[in-house]
């Protein structure tokens, strides 16, 4: 193989690989753009708002899980298997 043919093949391979990368990148970007459905984006925003409200409820200072656990510990346990005391 003469040197000019080898150089031509190397340039061709590099060009083809870059063209392939550009094609795949463009294809991925188009697929992401098609996913951006306005109705889905509105639903996503609504869900984010609901999660924010739930986070506020859970982290609210009036909401104390320890109080509930203390209340449950103070209640007498229910008899097992329907038996009343031994």
Overview in brief:
With 86 residues, this protein is mainly α.
Specify the number of helices: 3
The percent range for helix content is: over 70%
Specify Rg, calculated over alpha carbons: 33 Å
Q: What fraction of residues sit in β-strands?
A: under 5%
Q: H/E order of the elements?
A: HHH
Low-pLDDT runs: none
Morphology call: elongated
- Please identify the structural class as seen in this structure: mainly alpha
Secondary structure layout:
Elements lengths: L2 H33 L2 H22 L5 H10 L12
Characterise this structure.
This protein is mainly alpha-helical. It has two domains: about 1-35; about 35-75. It is about 75% helix and about 0% strand. It has three helices and no strands. The protein has helices at about 5-35, 40-60, 65-75. About 0% of the residues are buried. The mean pLDDT is about 80.
């Amino acid at each position: 193989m003469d040197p000019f043919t080898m150089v031509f093949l190397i340039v061709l391979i590099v060009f083809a690989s870059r063209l392939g990368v550009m094609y795949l990148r463009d294809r991925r970007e188009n697929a992401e753009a098609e996913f951006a459905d306005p109705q889905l984006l509105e639903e996503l925003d609504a869900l984010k708002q609901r999660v924010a409200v739930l986070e506020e409820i859970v982290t609210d200072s009036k909401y104390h899980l320890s109080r509930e656990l203390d209340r449950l510990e103070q209640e007498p346990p229910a008899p097992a298997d329907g038996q009343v005391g031994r």
